[in-house]
Design a protein that fits this description.
This protein has about 400 residues and is α/β, with parallel strands linked by helices. Helices cover about 45% and strands about 10% of the residues. Helix 3 crosses helix 7. It starts with 20 loop residues before the first helix and ends with a helix.
């Protein structure tokens, strides 16, 4: 969890994972097994993850971006179709829609939950709309009842971006058991990591079979089926696919990570609660509220920094925390604030005021389960120190104005 740097040996790296001896040994066993590509460990990981989510079927792929893109393609969504998603997300969500050939339609977010605004989704539906891609931001579930109702009423596909939401539940059920396709990320900063990797859960076995086909060059038999001890079998190419499968090396890491997912969840909640107690009387705006209907995954802790109230803005606080040995993140600048989407789609940040405000003011503080209590207190103390500097600036400003 620390950077090996003579000058900053105690630097707290934002989102850095820690791999146990068990995880390293699992990877080593796979490397020595003679099979490191997609094979038995990948299948085992699919089954174990589906069981954890309460999902009927799962397919392991190379990333959550791949999961989203392949899901849309497997549903036949592409040229001429519209897909509604949130303006408050990482570029991968929108890029997956674009790469599928469809047109992304952005809507703003709810200021309390920072999740997609359901009423604005309803207003954005047209005869060309084929799917909704909600993002369960920071680990808080979107309103699943409302989304499932829209899915049924307008005959839409519901393809979840659950990159933050491995442990997230709605009304006591994991999100992996809702909708048509639920896409997960196992990137290095996520609550389970395979370094890079993703998973798709679905109740539809035919859909999962098609997605697997697309993820492996459109090949009728994967390498494990062709070369394992069952003997060689010829394959056929039945569609124009991609190379987006997960390897057994990655899956062996994921299997071990899955064993500790609930323990790590509880530790992150402890840290979240300490932050909430420490910051509730400060000038910071607290992160997304917790709903009695949802189990929050506590993937990100994202207070908002309003310069008019705090005396510093979010960018300045990130720099000041870095100077004090604390790594931070930004989740996220809104999609319309990015130049590429401005140029191609003409999206203006002012058209999505809530997402734009969040993007300008949000700061992500360290929330890995490997933080010690002392490190958590260091983060709090450094934030308080910066807020005190900001408060002094505001007093000086007000005195000068008077």
């Amino acid at each position: 969890m620390r950077v090996k740097d003579e000058k900053r040996a105690d630097y707290i790296v934002f989102g850095q994972p820690r791999l146990s001896d068990e995880e390293i040994q699992a990877v080593t066993r796979t490397l020595r097994s003679g099979w490191i590509g997609t094979g038995p460990r990948s299948k085992e990981f699919e089954s174990a993850f589906a069981a954890y989510q309460g999902a009927d079927h799962a397919a392991a792929v190379s990333s959550c971006t791949a999961a989203l893109n392949l899901s849309l393609r497997a549903f036949g969504i592409g040229q001429g179709d519209e897909v509604i998603t949130t303006a408050m997300t990482f570029a991968a969500t929108v890029n997956a829609i674009i790469h599928a050939g469809a047109t992304p339609v952005l809507v703003d977010v709810n200021p309390l939950t920072q999740n997609i605004d359901i009423e604005k989704v309803r207003q954005a539906i047209t005869p060309r709309t084929r799917a909704i891609v909600p993002v369960h931001f920071a680990g808080l579930a979107c309103d699943m009842d409302a989304l499932m109702e829209l899915r049924s009423r307008y005959n839409l596909k519901l393809v979840h971006d659950c990159a933050h939401a491995i442990e997230t539940e709605w009304k006591g059920r994991h999100i992996g058991s809702y909708g048509d396709a639920v896409c997960y990320s196992f990137y290095s900063t996520k609550n389970i990591t395979t370094i890079e990797g993703g998973m798709v859960c679905s109740p539809d076995s035919a859909f999962i079979d098609k997605l697997r086909l697309l993820s492996y060059q459109g090949m009728s038999k994967d390498a494990w089926k062709r070369y394992s001890n069952h003997g060689y079998n010829h394959y056929d190419i039945v569609t124009n696919g991609f190379k987006l499968n997960m390897t057994d090396v990655q899956a062996s890491l994921g299997l071990e990570q899955l064993k500790t997912v609930e323990d790590h969840y509880r530790r992150r909640k402890e840290i979240w609660d300490v932050y909430q107690k420490a910051f509730k009387t400060t000038q910071l705006a607290m992160p997304s509220y917790e709903s009695s209907l949802s189990r929050h995954a506590y993937h990100l802790y994202t207070p908002m920094v309003d310069a008019d109230v705090c005396g510093v803005d979010a960018d300045e606080m990130r720099v000041m925390l870095h100077e004090r040995g604390i790594g931070t993140g930004c989740h996220y600048r809104s999609i319309p604030a990015m130049s590429y989407y401005n140029d191609i789609y003409g999206w203006n940040p002012d058209q999505y005021p809530v997402a734009n405000q969040i993007g300008n003011q949000t700061i992500s503080l360290p929330l890995t389960p490997y933080l010690t209590d002392i490190e958590v207190m260091r983060v709090i103390m450094k934030v308080m120190e910066i807020l005190a500097i900001g408060a002094e600036r505001l007093r000086h400003r007000d005195k000068k104005a008077a």
